[in-house]
């Protein structure tokens, strides 16, 4: 399967801290890849690098066949950030229809996306009056109107109720079946089984990459939580062994 994203020997330094340590990974086209790891593991920094808004120390990131950050990618990538990226003094409908117009989408299609993210009842509500979860859904709707080839979502289900989380994942799956590539970050391990492939990251290093089944098989367990913990233990033991050799 062709790759939508290729990451090779990527190192990112912020201030005096190395956030990503020479990592390599790939994201296949037309599938849902989960980027999973605890808070502070480097997920958001990696995502910022993929969408071209992060300075890197070394390494390469290729997105849809072009260097990350290329001007040609702006209309081909949809990006949902953890921080809401909508106009607070406009209604949900005004925000979504505005962004839709920039990408040639009609008002009726934009309104359908509002319904899809569960904001039909709040469509005429000013964004600053929304709850935190509703605010995030408004941002997600604006990312979806780009009709992207690649959709990058940074923890899109955080703060959402279980029913809406299920509905959002159904939407994500429908997009993938339509040929869209999705990269979705999360620290919620039970969302991992919804993905076609996973990239597990901790402390700026890749612990494992592959299908959920392949990762659990490698760790010798059927439980992804346990698999992650065992892979963390392997990483710690490997680091300790290297340290002893250096000494």
TrEMBL record:
The keyword Translocase does not apply. Keywords: ATP-binding, Nucleotide-binding. PROSITE patterns: ABC_TRANSPORTER_2 (PS50893). Residues 5-228 form the ABC transporter domain. InterPro entries: AAA+_ATPase, ABC_transporter-like_ATP-bd, P-loop_NTPase. One of its GO terms (molecular function) is ATP binding. The keyword Nucleotide-binding applies. This is Multidrug ABC transporter ATP-binding protein. The lineage of its organism: Bacteria, Bacillati, Actinomycetota, Actinomycetes, Micromonosporales.
